[in-house]
Amino acid sequence: MMNNQEHREAVETVSHLIKGIEIAMLITVTEEGPVSRPMEIQEVEFAENPLFPTKSDTDKCGHLQQHPEVKSTAARD
């Protein structure tokens, strides 16, 4: 298990790696299995969790209510 300093360093590393990336894939789970969708990353300085703005009446929000665990991926060109 990470201590607070290790956690902060890991968050800083991830924040540095995704800085400037505009689109990431958000992966949610449905009853049929995982669903990946491109999402715009909300730019937040030193964000512990990237933010993916969306409307509350979308399918992905329904998926999140049933299965709140998500994964995301991001890549540079």
Keywords:
77 residues, alpha+beta, 3-stranded antiparallel beta sheet, 2 helices, 3 strands, 30% helix, globular
How would you describe this protein?
There is one protein chain. The protein has two helices and three strands. Strands 2-1-3 form a three-stranded antiparallel beta sheet, with helices on one face. The protein is an alpha+beta fold and 77 residues long. 30% of the residues lie in helices and 25% in strands. The longest helix is centred in the N-terminal third of the chain and has 15 residues, at 4-18.
Write a compact overview of the structure shown.
This protein is an alpha+beta fold. It has two helices and three strands. It has helices at 4-18, 59-66, and strands at residues 23-30, 33-40, 71-73.
Give the overall pLDDT as a whole number.
Answer: 83
Number of helices: 2
What composes the largest sheet? 3 strands, antiparallel
Strand content: 15-25%
**Which sequence of SSEs, written as H and E, runs from N to C?**
HEEHE
| Overall outline | globular
Q: Give the helix proportion (percent range).
A: 25-40%
Structural class given helices, strands, pairing? alpha+beta
The stretches of 5 or more residues where confidence is low (pLDDT under 50) are: none
From the N-terminal CA to the C-terminal CA, the straight-line distance is 33 Å
Specify Rg, calculated over alpha carbons.
14 Å
> Numbering strands along the chain, what is their spatial order in the largest sheet?
2-1-3
Give the strand tally. 3
